[in-house]
Amino acid sequence: xxxxxxxxxxxxxxxxxxxxxxxxxxxxxxxxxxxxxxxxxxxxxxxxxxxxxxxxxxxxxxxxxxxxxxxxxxxxxxxxxxxxxxxxxxxxxxxxxxxxxxxxxxxxxxxxxxxxxxxxxxxxxxxxxxxxxxxxxxxxxxxxxxxxxxxxxxxxxxxxxxxxxxxxxxxxxxxxxxxxxxxxxxxxxxxxxxxxxxxxxxxxxxxxxxxxxxxxxxxxxxxxxxxxxxxxxxxxxxxxxxxxxxxxxxxxxxxxxxxxxxxxxxxxxxxxxxxxxxxxxxxxxxxxxxxxxxxxxxxxxxxxxxxxxxxxxxxxxxxxxxxxxxxxxxxxxxxxxxxxxxxxxxxxxxxxxxxxxxxxxxxxxxxxxxxxxxxxxxxxxxxxxxxxxxxxxxxxx
Length: 397
Prior knowledge:
Blueprint: E1 3-10, E2 26-33, H1 45-61, H2 70-86, H3 94-105, H4 112-130, H5 139-149, H6 189-200, H7 207-221, H8 228-242, H9 253-259, H10 261-273, H11 276-315, H12 323-330, E3 336-338, H13 339-346, H14 350-363, E4 366-368, E5 377-380, H15 383-391
Antiparallel strand pairs: 1-2, 3-5, 4-5
Helix pairs in contact: 1-11, 2-4, 2-9, 3-4, 4-5, 4-8, 5-8, 6-7, 7-8, 7-11, 9-11, 10-11, 11-12, 11-14, 11-15, 12-14, 13-14
């Protein structure tokens, strides 16, 4: 990606503590990328082919749309959010997150890291809900995503605040001199974000190329003091949703990027200082792999639901309109569930849900995971094993 470095000077602030070796002024180079509006991009045949294959994989993933499959969309969204958080060092396994999500809903204590990852799930869901191609996309929308991402972070006082200071990646904690990468100075950020939001609304590029450029440019601008990675990965999904190739299911590309973190970081570096088409090709391959993997897991979850129906039919065989059947449809979005959650998920009365839960527990579909009679929780048999496999990037067995 074309751009330029500008020489800047760091002045030591004696009111802030720093070890003696950092108590001095120093020079550093901040990078200012060219505007995406000015980018003249030509894809070679090989890269164009990879992009076309990846877009086809994402469209295939989204080919079967129905209200009955909505819980599966939530499952993929949670997986994408979880892996995106892991890239920022927020590590919670899929099983622990599912339990934490329900504990939070019923007012029980949840760990600090799990709370922050759950905020990322909410941010991704909010971004997807708002990602309408009919509405203009503005800096306010980016700020809103960031505010959701950082809502439960220890430094949440910075949520939704575009930076007014210099930040940097790598090096030391006291100054940007010697950093691996120094984003644009703060006075450049607003104009670069305006160009970025214009790029989100473009329709003259292939959708996946557009998503790759928007994500890498956002990470280059690094407009917030923290939470840029998670915000930027939500933003790439917004582009795919707005362009219509991922209307229902997000390809969990962060699963692939998290498994190849060093290559991902190198790819962003290639975008900034090398050939952006190499980053586009790398991003396309990750999206194709993510979409193909997700499609296999959607099939595996569908097979699991068929097993649950067989178990329920053998154990109780309730009426066709019984709440137990409806709960089986809803479980993929709720790997761990409570009675209150089941009422919301099915829209049935508490009495009907109590009967459904009892039938599904007797059938072995729901496994009780709490001994207390208050705030009882159940885990959907076999589902979290699949979720953990998807989160790890393994093909379903």
